[in-house]
Design brief:
116 residues, alpha+beta, Arc Repressor Mutant, subunit A, 6 helices, 12% strand, elongated
Length: 116
């Protein structure tokens, strides 16, 4: 029978606990970072960010990259824009998006090899 994966008796190393607490960001920043990671958990949104890491693209281009309809891509872009991860500019009838970052996303994209 396997042993339980919890301590059989409660004890605490005050030094390690204090050091671990110091590494945690303030609760508001932790919540904001968790919200960003939640956005990155969707493959469509992550694909958009990876595509935009190489430079700005219009919505039509992103639609072709993802193999998704304009409406679906626009919906994902709206969420990314609300989180401050992308911005856009109009050029005539076209709308171009670019990655605007955020340190959490920048680290994630760099880890995936999309950014240097």
């Amino acid at each position: 029978m396997a042993k339980p994966a919890v301590c059989a008796e409660f004890c605490s190393n005050k030094g390690k606990v204090a050091a671990a607490k110091k590494r945690l960001p303030p609760p508001a920043r932790l919540r904001a970072d968790a919200d960003v990671y939640s956005l990155l958990a969707d493959t469509g949104r992550l694909s958009i960010l990876l595509a935009l890491a190489g430079g700005e693209l219009c919505v039509c281009d992103l639609s072709q990259v993802l193999g998704a309809g304009l409406s679906a891509v626009s919906h994902q872009l709206r969420l990314l824009r609300a989180a401050g991860l992308v911005s856009y500019r109009n050029e005539g009838k076209l709308v171009f998006y670019r990655y605007t970052g955020g340190s959490v996303v920048h680290r994630a994209l760099r880890g995936l090899g999309a950014l240097e």
